Amino acid sequence: MRIDLHAHSSASDGTQSPAELVAAAARAGLDVLALTDHDTTVGWAPAARAAREHGITLVRGTEVSARWRGVSVHLLSYLQDPDHPALVAELEATRHARVTRAERMVELLAVDVPITWADVLAQAGDAVTVGRPHVADALVANGVVPDRDAAFAHLLRADGPYHVPHYAPAAADAVRAIVAAGGVAVFAHPGADARGRIVPDETFDELAAAGLAGLEVDHRDHSPAQRERLRAIADRLGLLVTGGSDYHGAGKVNELGENLTRPEILAVIEERGTSEVVR
Ligand code: AMP
Ligand code: ZN
Ligand code: FE
Ligand code: FE
C-alpha cells in the first residue's frame, strides 16, 4: 500500500486542479492520497469525484495555518466535518488575512522589482487561498527570478525584508478546533528548520494535551537528525507518525509518493475521523 497524506491542488498553491491532482496520484501508482490544501476544503468535492473515477482512495483534509509564539505552524487536519462552524470561521479568517498580507508584500516588493497585485491575482487563478507561491509565480512571470525556489531563496523568505506575517490561530486553539470538527490533527513538517523557525520540544506536550494525534515525521524538509528527534517525541507522547510528499504540482520538486504513511496509521486516522474516506 502506497499512502501519501500531504498534497496541494490549485484550490490553494498547487499547480493542478483537484481532479488533475487525483489523476496524477493514480498514475504515480499511489493507493491512497490525502488532499490537504492550505486553509480550505473547496477541492474536496471535485477530488472525490475524480477518486471514484480513477479507483484511488482519497483522504479529505486541510493544512491549517497556525502560530505558536510567533512561529508559523502548519497542522494537517484529516477527515473533519467540513461544515463545522468554528473551524470554517477560523479558515475563513486566515484566508482573508492572507490576501491583505500578500497585498502588503507586493507593495514592499514593488519598490525594488517589477510586480503588481494584478500580476499575483493572474497567477492565483481560481485559488481561494493566496500564498507566497502565487507571489513567486508573478515574480517568475515578470522575469525577476527563474522559478519558485529562487523566489523563496531571497525575496520571499520568512526572515527577509519583504516578508509580512498573516493572522493565524494559536496552534493549541487550531488543534482544539480541528478535534471539535471531528478531524484528526497531525503537525505538518514540524522539524523543517531550513525554511524558518521551528518549535521547541515542549510545544509537542502542549499540543498533545490539546488533542494533537500525530507528527508528520517523513517529509523532505526534515534532516535525518530531525526525523530521529521527532520519532522520539512521538514515542514519548504516543503520537502517530505519518509521511507525505507535500506535492505542489509543477511548482516544487516534491514528487507524489516520495514519503509515505504506513497502513496501520491510516487505519487509526480513518477510525478517529468524522468524514468518510472516499473509495
Ligand atoms: P505561505 O503560507 O503563504 O507563507 O507560503 C507557504 C508556502 O510556501 C508553502 O506551501 C510552502 O510549500 C511554500 N514554501 C515555503 N518555503 C519555501 C521555500 N523555501 N521554497 C519553496 N517553497 C516554499
Ligand atoms: Zn503550499
Ligand atoms: Fe506546510
Ligand atoms: Fe503543504
How would you characterize this protein structure?
With 279 residues, this protein is of the alpha/beta class. It has 2 domains: 3-92 and 170-272, Metal-dependent hydrolases (TIM Barrel, Alpha-Beta Barrel), CATH 3.20.20; 100-153, Orthogonal Bundle (DNA polymerase, domain 1), CATH 1.10.150. The chain is 41% helix and 15% strand. It contains 10 helices and 7 strands. The chain has helices spanning 18-27, 44-54, 85-110, 117-124, 132-141, 148-153, 171-180, 201-210, 224-237, 263-272; strands at residues 3-4, 32-38, 57-68, 71-78, 184-188, 214-218, 240-243. The chain has a 7-stranded mixed beta sheet with strand order 1-2-3-4-5-6-7. Helix 1 (18-27) runs parallel beside helix 2 (44-54) and helix 4 (117-124) crosses helix 5. The two termini are 14 Å apart. The mean pLDDT is 98. One fe (iii) ion is lined by residues 63, 74, 188-189. One fe (iii) ion binds next to loops. GO terms for molecular function: 5'-3' DNA exonuclease activity; 5'-3' RNA exonuclease activity. This is Metal-dependent phosphoesterase. It comes from Cellulomonas uda. InterPro entries: PHP_dom (IPR004013), PHP_domain (IPR052018), Pol/His_phosphatase_N (IPR003141), Pol/histidinol_Pase-like (IPR016195). Residues 3-68 form the Polymerase/histidinol phosphatase N-terminal domain.
